[in-house]
Amino acid sequence: MTFEEKLDRLKEIVDKLESPDTLDLDMSLSLFEEGVSLARTCRKLLEEAEVRVQNVSEDENSEDGRESLADNENGEWDGFEEN
What we know:
single chain, mainly alpha, 2 helices, 80% helix, rod-shaped
């Protein structure tokens, strides 16, 4: 199940629990437990995605820094031409 599918299911559960139709206690508890589990899973997936984005951003920044440093040491700027 994808993140989006989990989120959609979580919305369905919330709608059912908030609906004026009375659910029996067992069904309500079952839906609540499923919802909590989905919420935890979605939160974990979001945290993992955030770490991946940060790692990519840090890698990009460190690569830019290394290239700039190397270019400065050689006295040349990569991609910059003087007219």
